[in-house]
Amino acid sequence: MTQQVQFTKAVGNASEINELLRRYGVKFGIYKNGVFNEQFFPFDPIPRVITAEDFQSMEKGLAQRVKALNEFLFDIYHEKKIVHDGIIPEDFIYISKGYLAECEGITPKNNVYSHISGIDLVQAKNGEWYILEDNLRIPSGASYPLIARDLTRIAAPQAFEENPIIDNRGYAELLKETMENVNCGGARAILTPGRYNAAYFEHSYLAELTDSVLVQNDELFVEDNILYYHTYSGGKSRIGVLYRRIADEYLDPLTFLPESLIGIPNLMEAYRSGNVGIINAPGNGVADDKGIYYFVPKMIKYYLGEEPILKNAPTYLPFYEEDMKYVMEHLDKLVIKDVAEAGGYGVVFGSKLTKEKLEEFRKTIIAEPRRFIAQEVIDFLDLPIIEDNETVMRKADLRAFVLSGAETKVWASGLTRFSRNPDSFVVNSSQGGGFKDTWVLSR
Amino acid sequence: MGTISLEHSDRLYWLGRYTERFFTTMKALGRQFDKMIGTEHGYTDYLNCFGLPDIYTDNRDFIRRLLFDKNNANSAAYSLERAYDNGIVLREEISTDSLSFLQMAIDTMYKAQQSSNVRLALLPLEDIVYSFWGSINEHIYDDEIRNIIYIGKTVERLDMYIRMKYPFNIVEKEFVRLLKNLNRVPKGTPYRYSTKYLSDLVEILGTEEDYMKDAEKAVDSLGHLFETEEVFV
Amino acid sequence: MKRVNFFYSTKLTFDDYVHNHSFALRVIPPETDTQHILSCSLNIAPYIPTKQTVDAFGNNVTAGYMRDDHRFLDFEIKGSAQVNHNKRRTDYMPCYLYQSQYTKPDNGLKTFYESIKKKCTGTVAEKAEYICNILSGTVEYEKGFTDTTTTAEQAFALKKGVCQDFSHILISLLRMEGIPARYIAGLAFCDGETHSWVEYWTGDHWEGIDPANNCPVNDDYIVISQGRDFRDCAIDRGVMFGKYTKQLQLVRSEMT
User: Fold this and answer.
1) How far is B31 from chain A (nearest CA, A)?
2) Are A23 and B103 an interchain contact pair (Cβ–Cβ within 8 Å)?
3) Boundaries of CATH 3.30.1490.270 in chain A?
C-alpha cells in the first residue's frame, strides 16, 4: 500500500492528464432521462501496480481460463461432451439466454470463439486475486488505459524512467494479429451501432489503431454469402473479418430478432459459409453466463486436465439443494446476482436489505433458483485515489484482456475501474466510476 | 486501409463545409465587432447578407448569440458542433490528432464565453483551425479522398464570400481553386460536378459585371453543383 | 410409402419500388429419413444469383440480395418426393426440450397444464395424443384472429387460432410435460397454403402429430422446415428499403 501512495507524485496531477484526455476526446456516452450525453471518463493518476511475480501467475491463470472457455464453447456448439459426461447439468446450458441454438454446428475459423475476453478480477486484502466474472461477448474498455498511457508518458516521463513498467501500447498490434488470425479474405472492419453508443470512442479509436474500416450496418450488405461495404465510388469492397460491437440478438435480422434495425441481413449465412470471421463469435453468451461461472474451474479440469490457477470467488448455486440451504442460512452476508443482468445491475448485497426485503427476496430465490447465484463478499483491497487534492481509499476491480489469436496472450495492462462512491462496491463506468492506469512491472 | 465508404465520403464533405463555415463566420464576426464599436445596431448589414431577421436587442446580444448560441443555425458555435458531429465518426480516416483540434476549438469557445474579453479569448481559434487543416493534410494519404474534404471547404468558402459580397478578385481566386479541386474528381463518384450548374457558375463568375448582377444565381448554382443529372437514352 | 408431387409459390408485390433487398428462404424441403426428395426446382423472379446453406436445424436456406429497384419477388418450388413414415427421424437437439420465444407459457397456459397434468399418463405417445386431444376440444380453429406474430399464450387466451397457433400451444404443453417437441412447417394434402404441425421426441425418434386436425402425421405430409417454433421456420424472411414497402403476399400450394 505504501508503495502505491509513493507513485502519487510520479504520474503528474490529475487535472493535467484529464485535460489531455479531454483534448483527445476520451468519452463515453450515457443516457439520462432519455437524453444522450457524452461524459469524460474520469482518470485517477495513481496507478494500480501489479508486480512481475503477481502478473506471471495471473497471466498463466488467465490464459488457462480462456483456453478452457474456448474449448467449452466449441464443445457446446458441437458434441456437448461436458453435458453428456455430467459435469454441467443440461439446464444451465439451454436455459441460458446466451446459448443460441442458431449457432449449432458452426465452426469459426481456427476454432476461436472468444477472441477478445475481458476477465474481471479483484484483489482481496490478503493479496489473493479472485475472478469475478468473464466477459466473452463484447467486453469493452481496453482503449482507455491505452490512450491514458500515451498521455501519462507525456505528462510524467520520469515515472516511466524510474519504474520498470511494461509498455502496454502493443495492444493495437495484438488486436490486429487476433483479427488477422480469423480473417477470411478482405478488409478488417469494426461494426459500431453508432456514435450514440456508450463505447463509441473505443470503437473509433481501435479502428484507427488497427487500420480497420469503421462501419455501421447500413453501409454493409451480404451478396453471394460474402460481406461487403458500399464504397463511395459506387462499388463494393469485401470484409474478411468483422469485429462487431453489437449484441448477438441484433446481428442478423434474418436469423435473430427480426425487428433489429442495426443488424446485417444474412450475415450469419456468410459466417456459416466461412466467408467472414466474426469477433467474438455469436453464441458466446452461454460461457459468460453468471450461472456457468460456477462451472469454469470444473471446465479447466475437464478440458485441460489442469488445476485452476486462479480462483473463483466462493460461489453457491441455489439450484443445488445443499447450496440453497447454505444461501438461505447466510443470505444476509452474501451478494446475490441475477444471472440475466449485466453492467452492475441486478446485484444485491444481503447485508443492505431490510428484514422485510430480505424475506421477500428469499421467496424469489426459492421460486426461481436457476435465476440467481450467491457469492461470499470478498474483502476488497481498496486502492488510493485522489479526490479534491486528498488521497482517499476506494473499491476497485481489474478487467484483464486476453486475446486469442494463433496463441492465447494476456495483455500486460488492463482496465482498473474504481467506485467514486465510498460505500459502493460497484465500479461500472455506466454507474459513475472512474479509471486508473494499470502498471505491470517487468521485474 | 481500403477504399472509404459512401457514408464516410459524405461526412468528409460536410466536415469540410462546417469547419470552413465556422472559420469564415468567426472571421466575419471579428470584423463586424470592430465595425460596430461606437454604433448602435451596427450589425444589420451582416444580417442582410444572409437574409436573416433582426431578433437582437443590441450589438452585444448580436455578437454573443452569433458566436455562442448553439440553437442558432447561423452561429459559429452551431457550425462547430456540426463539424464535430461529422468529425467524430471519421476518427479512423482523419486521426485522433485531427479530431483533437476540433475538441480544442470547442473548449476554447467555451472558455471564451466565460471570459471578460471575448475577442482576446477567441484568438487561439485561428491557430487551432489552421492546425486542424495541417493535420488533415498530413493524415489523409489518398489524394482522391483528401480532395473531397477540400471540395467541401472551398464550396463553403465560395458560398459565404459571395453572400457577403466579397470583392470579385477574391471570389475569382477561390473559384479557380474550386475548379482545380473539381477537375480531380473521377466520373461516376458522388462529388462529380453537374455540367449544367458548373457552366452557369463559369459564366457568372467570368466577369465582375456578371458577378455583381447574378450573385444570387451563383449561390443557387453552387447549391446544386453535385446533383446527379438524369441521363436519357 | 407414397410418391407425391408438390408445388408451392409465393408472390410478393410491393406498393412502390424497393431496393437493397436481402432475403432468406427456407423453402427447399430437406432430405430426411422419412422423405427422399426425387426432384426439386426453385425458381425466383426477377432472376438473381442465390447461395444455399443448411442452418442449425437442418433447413435448406436460400439467400439472395437485390440491390436495384424492383417491385416484386416471386418464388416457387416444384418437385416430387418419396415419403415413408415407417422410417424414423433421429436428428435430436437438446434445445427442443426448452421453451422458446413463441412457446413460453404465461400463467393461463401454466394453469391449464396443471389442470390436465394428472390425467396425462402412459407412454410419451399416449401423453402427446392425450394433450393434443384435450387441446383440440379447448381451442377452436378459426382464421382471422391471430397472425404470424401471435404466441402460444396469446392464442390460448383467445381460444382461437390456425395451425401455427395449435402447434405453438401443443409444443408449449409438451415441453412443460418434459417432452421435447419441434415445430414443422410444410405442405399437406388438406391445405391450400402451407401447413404446420408438431413432432415430439419419444425417447429415440420423432413422431409427427397434427394438432389443427388432431390426427397423426402420415405420408401425405411434406416437411419444408423445422425448428423450435415459427421463428426458425419462416418460409421467407426479408429486409428491404423503399418509400412504401407495404407488401401483398399471395401463397398457393398443391400436392398430388
Assistant:
1) 29
2) yes
3) 314-376
